[in-house]
Every structure is written in structure tokens, then in C-alpha cells.
Amino acid sequence: MQPTNSPSLKNMQSNSPKKLALLLPYAVNIRDICYSGALKKLSSSEGLIIHIYTQEPELVPLYGCNVSVYTLVEYTDSWLDRQLKQLFSVFIYQHSYNYQALHDLTRISPLNLVQLSWHGFKHSLFRLILAINIHKFLLVLSFFLSNRILRKKKYLCDTDYHMVVSSRSVINSLEYGYILDAFFSKSKLILAAGSWDNFTTKVFVDFNSSGVLVWNSQMASELKEIYGFSDKKIVILGFPRFSQLLNVPKTPQSVHEPSPAFKILICLSYEDLTKCPHNNIPAEFVNALNFLDLLDKSPLNSESLQVTIRFHPFTKSDFVELFKSSTKRFSFPVQLYFPGISKKYFENFMSFVEDRVYSSQLQDANVVISCGSTVAIDSMVLRKHQINIGWDPPGFSDYRPITRIWGFPHLRSLVASTNLKVYRSSTDALDDITKCMDNEFIDPVDYEAFTRLYVPNSSPSSYASSFSDSITDLQ
Length: 475
Known about the structure:
Blueprint: H1 9-12, E1 18-24, H2 27-35, H3 38-43, E2 48-54, E3 67-71, H4 79-104, H5 110-131, H6 134-151, E4 163-166, H7 176-185, E5 188-192, E6 211-214, H8 217-227, E7 234-236, H9 242-246, E8 262-267, H10 283-297, E9 305-310, H11 317-326, E10 334-337, H12 352-364, E11 367-370, H13 375-381, E12 385-389, H14 409-418, E13 422-423, H15 426-437, H16 447-453, H17 462-474
Parallel strand pairs: 1-2, 1-4, 2-3, 4-5, 5-6, 6-7, 8-9, 8-11, 9-10, 11-12, 12-13
Helix pairs in contact: 4-5, 4-6
């Protein structure tokens, strides 16, 4: 479903301007809404006053006197909140995996029929729970008891907002209290998905929203199949990072440093994702170092290689030091890039400058190596060759820290629908890097399917225009 043409802004105007609250709890939300040009486009609307709630005011560019910034206060769970959220989360996780299981059961056998019946029953049961709004009743009751009776706390500074737009809306988001404030105040609520995994691996919450803004048709399908949404409440905007990825000028090489023939960019995820009880070093880090060892021992020309390792901003300094000492032994140069972290929820690399650095690193790379990350989608937008690590390092197989990631529903859907290759051994990955260096690698990705399902309406200004027009239309 594509966003419909919005009515003329002049038709929206009334005697008094309309107030809109825009919740930007995390740096990724600021990146998507502000750096894409969506905020600039929205703030040019006549008769609209915008109040932005965020923990990082200096990252939010202001456009005109109709935009104000307020400090976002983190919601604190009560004991009742924690119990009901956990109960709701269990239901959602079960339901999203049942949804995936129903699509995976393609072979017909007696065992499959039993599995299909059981998954179908649980799928239908949860759809019934959603239909009668038991989950919403429990969460609203929790908030009402915790805040309206015990603490009597309100989050929104005004009670007369015409519309509240949340840019995340998952159950443990910082703006949870603001969303429920909007629910109680009867403000029109618009929910915008902050990432492509919000509806499957995270727990999405809908409190009587007027519309949900998503990136693509894949996310729209998940909203309909898992949460029972109708088409009329879903608006597809496009991929918010499309313009940032394509419109960043390449960094010129120093005149004293010749450009290497072949660049490999390794993007590491946050360390807790692949940690195991018996090993202090995350499995993804072990894989990266082992693969560099294999690369160093291979017959490839080390003089033509340059490797950049980009750490996740949450990476502890101890692990950065480990890489510093370990990578000195390789015959090819290894650059370490650590964006750092400024606050608990705000990564430095989400600033405008750091975001351009990330995009430039992707553009310059010949091969991008990652593991179950949004980096895969960014790389596909740029048509970069990828090595998606899908094997567990020696000694980690009992915990399956790497292979389990590729079982997450959003990643399974990406692999199945686009034919994205996931490597199950380091030797296979090395073979394809050799082919890339020899210009013999054939990319198996179905980019037509990828564009249709994941990055629709792809043009430099499409997301900004779609976001602004959709907000205008939903008013």
C-alpha cells in the first residue's frame, strides 16, 4: 500500500494552529527523521506547531520558530508493569515464531500435519487475544495503577496535542509513558516503526493508533499477519536511510597514501548478542579474528588488502584493546574504527558527521562482512558484495550464538525472499573473497525482490516526502 496523495495544506488550517508531539527517544530515530529531511519537510507545513521530545536536543536540527525541543523522561517500570510486560512479550514472541513456522511447514507428512495443527491453533488463539484487546487492557491497567493512581505522573507537557507521533513504539521503549499519555488524552496517535525487526523480535504495542508508518511491504505483511492490522491503517514510506547511503561524497585518499586495490569492511554487532557463559569473548569477535588469521595464511596478495573493523558503539574498551593487540600480527593493514558512545541510549555514530563516515566506509568497501545486522540491508542498497557470517566458532556450537541469529524471523524472511547468501564456513567465505578479488564472483541476491519488498519508493527525497505527506493526510 503506497501513501495516498495528501490534501492541500491550506485545507488543514483552522483558526488556531495544530500541535504535534514528535517522540524521538533514540539516536536511530533522530537519524531517520532528521537526517533524511523528513523533519525539515514536516516543519514547513503551515498551521502546525511541533514539539520534539528527545534525550539529545543538540542532535535535533531546528527548522523555524514552530519547532520546540523538550527533554524526554525515561519511563520507569513498576513491579506490575514488569510482570504484565513480560506476560505480553511471551505471547508476542510465541505468536511471531508461530507465524514464521506456518510459512516454513511446506512438506506434507504426518509429523508436519501435527505441527501445522498445533502452530495454527496457537496462531489463532493469539489472534483472538489481539482481537478482544486483552493485551491492551492489561498494559493500560498497569500504567493506570502505577502512574494515574500511585504516582500521578504525566509525561506530555501539553494535553491539547492534536497528534502524537511515536518513532519506535515497542514495549520497552523510553517513550512508553508518552504513548499511554496520548492514549488517555485522546490525542490522535501515529506509530512509526523504528527498525525492520520491531514487529517480530521486538514487541510492538498499538494503543488505538490512527495509523502505523512502516518501511516496506514486508513489514506491512508482518503487521497484518501477526497483529491483525488492516490495510487502511498501514502506510509504506520507503527506506529512511536511502538518501544518506547514496548521497555521501567519497573521502578522498591522501596524496601520500595510495589507494589499496581491495578493501574489506568488517562491521561488528553489539557484544551481548553473541556472548556465551563459558567464554568472555563474544563469538562474533572470535569469528572475526579467526577469519583474519585464515585470510593472512591464504595465498592472497596481502599487499593488495586493507581491512577496516568497525566496532559497535556499545563495545567495551577491553575488546577494542584485544583487537588492537591481536591485529598487529597480520601481514596486511588493519584499521580499527570505534565510534564510541556519548550516553546510555545515544551512539556517537548517529550524529550527522558520524553517519556520513559510516556511509562512506560502506561505499568504499569492496566486500562487507557482518552477522545478522541491518548492515546487510545497507550493503544491498549499495549493491555491495557481502560475507554474512553464519557459522559458530569452535567450542561455541552448544550455544549456537551465531547460527541462532539467522533463525530470527526478520532475518529468515530476508534470506528466503532475496536469496541473500549466509556462509556456513570460513573456507566458503574465503573462496568467495578470492573470487571477488579476481572479479569472478556472481552475486546471488535477487535485487528485484529486495527492492520490491524492502526498499520501495527509493529516491533521495521519497522518505522525507512520504513521512510529511502521511502525517498531513492522517490529521
